[in-house]
């Protein structure tokens, strides 16, 4: 009897798994909101980092901000699944359709941020202002390489 009950319980759990997985998945609108907030936070951090570079200040104080941007970009490219593009029901986004129609170019642009941010963090940690300023410019260029083709103004 116990074995039969255990089997019934397992069957019920297995049948519930797809339902539970679906419930755990965020909605497309939630993904877009998270994406927007993450990019805004990264942009706010980059604005503060660039201000230090423009002022010729000590870059070592920007290392934590750079680390936060790095953490975001480690997974940012995964936040563009099907169903989160312009025109999808209930979606308000400035992400252009090219992200989904030219995914390889988008993925390449997103991947370029990793090495740029690593170089930026190393330059900041070194305290060398000139190297930091150059790394800020290079990182900003990588941002533009993605914004221009993949983000509506």
From TrEMBL:
Residues 1-21 form the signal peptide. PROSITE patterns: CYTCII (PS51009). InterPro entries: Cyt_c/b562, Cyt_c_II, Cyt_c_prime. It holds the Pfam family Cytochrom_C_2. Keywords: Electron transport, Heme, Iron, Metal-binding, Signal, Transport. This is Cytochrome c. It comes from Sediminicoccus rosea. The lineage of its organism: Bacteria, Pseudomonadati, Pseudomonadota, Alphaproteobacteria, Acetobacterales.
